[in-house]
Amino acid sequence: MPFICDDFEWKLVDDREPYDKHRFVVVRKLSVKPNERTPIRNFTVDEIRQRIEKFGEIELIEIMPNNALEAHVTFVSDRSAYLMLLQHEFDKKALKTQPFDIEIADSWEQPLEVINQSPRHDMEVDEHVPEIFKLNEDCLLHVFQFLDLDSLVSLADVCKMFNRLSHHHCFPHIHKYKVDTDDDPAFTLAKLRQTLLCIGPHITDLSYDVSYDEDDGPGHTSKFLKVIAQNVGPNLQRAYFAFNLDRDNRMVTLAPVLQNLESLEIEDRDEGSSYDINFQALCPKLIEFTVNMDMAMIACCKPWPSLRSLSVKNNMVLTTTTLISFIKQNPQLTCLEFAIDRSNKTLLILAVTKYLSRFEKLTIVNTVNESFFARNFASLSNLPLLREINLEKLDRSSLKCIVNHLPTFINLQKISLSCSWYKGVGIEEYGQSFLDLAEKLPFLEELKLQRIPIHGDILVEFISSASKLNVLYVQDCELVFSNDLISKLVDTLKVSRQESKKALQFYLNKKDLNELKTVKRREIEEYLQLKRA
Prior knowledge:
This protein is α/β, with parallel strands linked by helices. It has helices spanning 45-52, 78-93, 137-144, 149-155, 160-170, 189-199, 220-231, 250-253, 255-258, 279-282, 320-329, 345-355, 374-378, 396-405, 431-440, 456-465, 483-496, 510-515, 522-525, and strands at 4-6, 9-11, 25-26, 29-34, 58-63, 71-75, 100-104, 176-180, 205-209, 238-243, 263-268, 288-291, 309-311, 335-340, 361-366, 388-394, 414-419, 446-450, 471-475, 504-508, 528-532.
């Protein structure tokens, strides 16, 4: 129900009450006068508009002809008038400086906007007007918030009022948009254009994963990309694109929306393609760049001042020489993800240690059944800012070597370890080194273990020593989760965290989580929050 005025006090009118047009009116018009204590320099329409337009859209500002020091301001929405009065009263009680004295204009001068359509003999009621058009703006906006994006886009074409409300109050709050033909096989070019006309200027995150090929018509994907380039505004900061890149110069088509990107993840749908794109020229402001495809990246191998994070772990074409050259030219990198093989393991690790003095996060994927050289991996501990290490597809020898050397990385906050296959790996080979992680890494906050065998007793002892550990992932680690093990963990946390009393977030496989019967107990949730990984 709208706000109405009864002797200059805000109240609500019950729709069942008879409507009295001489007493109740919708307040959209306010009287504005200069404050005598804090006079403004120019009492003009422009000055008034500049100071009060923050409350909402203004329909009219008029200086009273019989009083040059009084103006009437008519807002488009009664809500705006109410907010302005509310702020005025708040500032007045807080003794804040106010440029204007504000009050409700004479009720007989208020705009005639019927707030209650109760039938009366002296009022003409259009019986053909749908009930929804009798609701005020606040009620309509409340209804709109239950609609999905497609419904909101269609709603904007119903009438001018719905269009105005949608564009002013709904679309500006939509910042993420995903185009995925797997989720919606009937997705059309017309639908994309209609949607982006509404939300394009506002979105900050765009995901585009379309599986159309050339059988869908010549230039089908290119037409989609042109619509994106034409309608997505400069607010776009993060984007994911997956399509056949090596056709029609498609990335150049997207150039207008790439110029301001901070994060880009790119994936090619044509696995057999071979080409190189100068992403540094297309995305000069990029901070994070993820390349989930095979690309030589010679065109990108140049200074890229804004770039801080590079992920090429799924790029099997990138050579060691090119990646090391990229590292040398971009010493500002703080995060790097790459795959390692027989030919590049030594050189890459040494290049990271030598050139990336600001390095904070390292991800390495081991693609061969051969352990890392211990002395080379240990050299990474000399990086003063290194906070996070993620090691994937480790074999038996690699795992033993890594766990033995990790306690020397005293500044680590996050560790993630995963084996390609844990068969043949014995916990006795690295059990004590695993416990040393908790004792010798005082800042460790997060640990992820995947396909790494571990005993329940060792896990309990590890948690007892890792006082700052906030997040723990244990997946496919041959650990039998039982109510007794959970009880031991909780008892350990009660003792080790008496001062902080911060619960440990414990992520498990769905199967392990479903077999436990203690998840809902409050005394457990206070110390151990069991979650699905």
